[in-house]
Amino acid sequence: MKKEILLLKHQDDFIKSNYRHTGLVAGFGSGKSHAGITKTVIKKLMYNGIDVAYYLPTYPLVKDIAFPRFSEILSNLGIPFKLNRSDKEFHLPNGRIILRTMDNPDLIVGYEVGYSLIDEADVLPKDKMQEVYTKIVARNRKALPNGEKNSLDFVSTPEGFKFLYEFFVKKPSPNKLLIKGKTADNPFLPDDYIPSLLETYSDEKILAYLEGEFVNLTSGNVYRNYNRQDNNTRRVVKAGDVLHIGMDFNITKMNAVVHIQEDKKHFAVDEFVNAYDTQELCELIKRKYSNHKIIVYPDSAGSSRSTSGKSDHDIIRSFGFTIRGMVRNPAVKDRVNAMNLAFKNNKQEISYYVNDEQCPNYSEALERQTYKNGEPDKTSGFDHITEAGGYYIYQATGKTITYRVR
Hints:
This protein is α/β, with parallel strands linked by helices. It has helices at residues 9-16, 32-46, 59-76, 126-139, 163-170, 193-200, 203-209, 278-288, 312-318, 332-343, 360-368, 383-396; strands at residues 21-26, 52-56, 82-84, 89-92, 95-101, 115-119, 151-156, 176-181, 243-248, 254-262, 265-275, 294-298, 322-323, 352-354, 371-372, 375-376. Helices cover 32% and strands 20% of the residues. The strands form three sheets. It has an eight-stranded mixed sheet, with helices on both faces. Strand 3 (82-84) and strand 4 (89-92) form a beta hairpin. The relative contact order is 0.13. Residues 245-391 form the Terminase large subunit gp17-like C-terminal domain.
């Protein structure tokens, strides 16, 4: 029985393209990964006995996205397969679909394929993606039937002026085709999906993450929505307040920002800067706020044990503080986005206030930290205390951003 695959126009254009390099750059939920996986399967069926490869930034994405999506499409097409999870490979009757991560380019060795596809190419820093691209091109060399050229394609959400912008826009060639898609092009999304994104993202991120456009996401001040007047408060710690403390770990530069929650609003009311280590920082907090319940939102790196046998998190707990932590820190852009939305969202609503008299270093850092080479500048010294505040806000506001890869 003939099997059919339903496709959106930009998916169909991408799959049918025979350019040496075709890029599908599109918004969240627009079906980028679905198009990429479908094209990879089609290429595998076309090339009997020739392997193909599919790349994602990290293993969790391979496990959560590639394993189930490839399994679903192969099953729907009635193609028998066996998934080898340890080797990250799908075995089909006529060859393999090889899955690899891009977090360590040195491991992209030891195999040859006839077709390759890179998913979420713009997640990586531009220089690292260039290194990955070079490695993948070297693997993409298996001779194809009828003298066809080996293709290497891309699907991704645009992340500013990074690798895909350089590759397709600044360095166009007759061998390259760039296709764009919008979130709104997908009629199968839940009704509240796009409105929820419009509430979550800044104007620049809406252009990138919904419209699929290349825009500058990393210029100017990092915390551009912070305004010392609009976000100011004279709230201070009172008896009975539960204290929510964001904490960043850096030896000799331990920083913490003390917060209070009231009616879904958040108030930064005190700061601790440049303590020597976790022990000293906790002693300072305990001495000043011994009569308060304290909940700490720490840098996740502090869960690792030191040579003394105690982790930073162990030390925090030894003072009777509660920890609300994450398995790993949020992506920098997600933490920054959560803070900017708390300072002022797209509805002009403010949920995060800073007492600039009690938090002079934090206020200055929020005003002055800028981007450098596309990332928040770490050479100015403003990064430690803003990260401390950000670890709290990221969790407390519930602005957990997940990469939607379709």
